[in-house]
Amino acid sequence: MFMRFLVCAVLSACCASAGAQSKWIEGTHYFLVQPAQPTSTPGKIEVLDVFSYACPACNAFQPTVDKLKAALPPEARMAYLPAAFNPQEDWPVFQRAFLAAQILGVAEKTHDAMYDAVWGKGSLSISDKITGRLLPQAQQPTIEDVAKFYTAYGVKTEDFLAAAKSFTMDMQIRQADAQVLAEQVQGTPTLIVNGKYRVTPKSAGGYPQTIDLVLYLIAKEKAGS
User: Fold this and answer.
1) Which residues, in sequence order, are CB contacts of 135 under 8 Å at separation 6+?
2) Multiple choice CATH, 26-223, 2.30.42.10, 3.40.50.970, 3.40.1190.20, 3.40.30.10
3) pTM, to two decimals
4) Dihedrals φ, ψ of 48, to 5°?
5) What are the residue ranges spanned by the domains of the chain?
6) What is the pLDDT of residues 133-151, one digit of tens each?
7) Is the peptide bond before 38 cis (omega within 30 degrees of 0)?
8) pLDDT tens for residues 50-98?
9) Does residue 25 come out as left (phi exceeding 0), alpha (psi in the -120 to 50 range) or beta?
10) b vs e for 95-134, b when ≥16 Cβ sit within 10 Å of the residue's Cβ?
């Protein structure tokens, strides 16, 4: 009787282990980035958020990104990569804005507020608040409008515009665009784990599942498998 119980217990444990291993399936829930790409966080497992402030799906996903960032283990670190897929929706302006804010050291502390400015309070809105329709391009925020936003965070308008319009900025934009292509990102929001694994909320099966999947991939990287 005892041996039968022991065998059943071992079988149950094996089944549970197999179930845990098969919960996340490569090619279904996450995808390999081939070849793997270098990261910007030496010594840490990088979780890269590919986003745009002008992307409504990114705005909806941002609270989950904040939760994921808070849940990261010590060996992991969040990073951000602004995409510019849609020129007609001001994506290049917001890409330039984030990179300028990064140069000036205010990108992370203003990150959530920028989403609110575009989709909440509306000081940098790209759509009509009543109809929800995209504003004509001539009425969408300019980099000068964005510069005014950052003054609330101690950044002088002239300093922001100098960073946003510099030669260094043009080079960083080209690098960001090249990285988006190298990571094989097809839309936003997308998360890249340590330059190796590509995840979207859709592939993970939902927002909460995205957090679980990214933490699983971090553990996988930590284990070296």
Assistant:
1) 125, 126, 127, 128
2) 3.40.30.10
3) 0.89
4) -100, 120
5) 26-223
6) 888 888 999 999 999 999 9
7) no
8) 999 999 999 999 999 999 999 999 999 999 999 999 888 899 999 999 9
9) beta
10) bbbbbbbebbebbeebbeebbebbbeeeebbbbeeeeeeb
